[in-house]
Amino acid sequence: MSETNPRLRAELEGIPTYKPGKPAAAADGPAAYKLSSNENPYPPLPGVMESALAAAGSFNRYPDMACTALMSELADRFGVPTSHIATGTGSVGVAQQLLQATSGPGDEVIYAWRSFEAYPIITQVSGATSVRVPLTDGEVHDLDAMADAITDRTRLIFVCNPNNPTGTVVRRAELERFLDRVPKDVLVVLDEAYREFIRDPEVPDGIEIYRDRPNVCVLRTFSKAYGLAGLRVGFAVAHEPVAAALRKTAVPFGVSQLAQDAAVASLRAEDELMGRVGSLVNERTRVVEALRGQGWTVPETQANFVWLRLGDRTADFAAACEKAGVVVRPFAGEGMRATIGETEANDIFLQAAEAFRKEL
Ligand SMILES: Cc1ncc(COP(=O)(O)O)c(C=O)c1O
């Protein structure tokens, strides 16, 4: 066999691989609960299961490529024209399309760090250069520093609100001030994957912000509050040129019929879904207060997870949690993120955190 391999793009070298949250059944122990991927612990609502099962009967057919029913449901739900909506294979799929549409070699993409770990990966795949702006000491986006980082080469800026993995938010006044400083030809992506968990009234709804700002695009997902992570469906709301670019860069038939129908059914069962989200928010309050009571510093979280900055104790903390029966998401040398899950899982996490704290 020849030694010559197919030529691959140099940009692919050194791309960090996306680390999915570890599954609950770890090879080296019987951890029972997965708190490592910010999933929803509730099973799909009954109507969702029925529509998904019905869609399964037509698996020999391609899905509706235009996602007609879902688009029209979303347009009604958010009061936006269907021409302003673009669906994709999870919001991370849509984020990748946004990069394809805006950025390439020589261009720059700004985001806070630490933030969602897909940003560096999809930026590097596009060939553009990542410009990471450290979070403030309070673990919040430093929007002034992000605006200062804009150059002639900047094409796209991610603002993750709430931020994954810290759960922290940027509020209306600071976001508006930041957007006023961004040149109109630079796309700002408000990644609102955890929007439904926000209870702070000062955090703006991106869909209100985008209306009179043609360079703002909002990303939402059915993976978190709506509990459809396994089906891969997310969407963007943006003005027509951006939404049209997303349709051009979409993988044809990328969103399965099952995902489309389940998303529609979830939107129709929203009252019940939001009841579940409310319970998770109550659990979040309980977990944060308990952790603080144990002496931990916990940043204010508006998402379905909590963040502890642990530095070089991160791996030990994660191992202690796993031994106790919950898998959390460690970021080596930095800290760990734990999803708010079932009450029993949260209790085990709190007990593990308390025991670890006492050993310090
Ligand atoms: C901030 C943020 N954006 C986007 C996503 C992607 O979600 P999905 O591709 O499942 O819609 C995630 C998932 O963890 C996330 O944390």
User: What would you report as the Rg, rounded to the nearest angstrom?
Assistant: 21 Å
Number of strands: 12
Q: Which ranges are low-confidence, i.e. pLDDT below 50, for 5 or more consecutive residues?
A: none
What's the number of structural domains?
A: 2
Beta content: 15-25%
Shape: globular
Biggest sheet details: 7 strands, mixed
| Mean pLDDT over the full residue set | 95
Cofactor: pyridoxal 5'-phosphate
Domain Aminotransferase class I/classII large: 34-346
Catalytic activity: an aromatic L-alpha-amino acid + 2-oxoglutarate = an aromatic oxo-acid + L-glutamate
Function: Aminotransferase that catalyzes the conversion of aromatic amino acids and 2-oxoglutarate into corresponding aromatic oxo acids and L-glutamate.
Folded structure, characterized:
- 44% of the residues are buried.
- By secondary structure, the chain is α/β, with parallel strands linked by helices.
- The mean pLDDT is 95.
- It is built from 12 helices and 12 strands.
- The longest helix is centred in the C-terminal third of the chain and has 24 residues, at 270-293.
- Strands 2-8-7-6-5-3-4 form a 7-stranded mixed β-sheet, with helices on both faces.
- Helix 2 packs parallel to helix 9.
- The chain is globular and about 55 Å long.
- The termini are far apart.
- It has helices at 46-56, 68-78, 90-102, 118-126, 143-148, 172-181, 206-210, 240-249, 257-268, 270-293, 314-324, 343-359, and strands spanning 33-34, 85-88, 108-113, 129-134, 154-160, 187-191, 216-221, 234-237, 305-309, 326-327, 329-331, 335-339.
- Strand 3, helix 4 (118-126) and strand 4 form a beta-alpha-beta unit.
- Helices cover 39% and strands 15% of the residues.
- It folds into 2 domains: 18-42 and 268-357, Aspartate Aminotransferase, domain 1, CATH 3.90.1150.10; 54-266, Aspartate Aminotransferase, domain 2.
- Pyridoxal-5'-phosphate (PLP) is lined by residues 38, 90-92, 116, 160, 164, 191, 193, 221, 223, 229, 234.
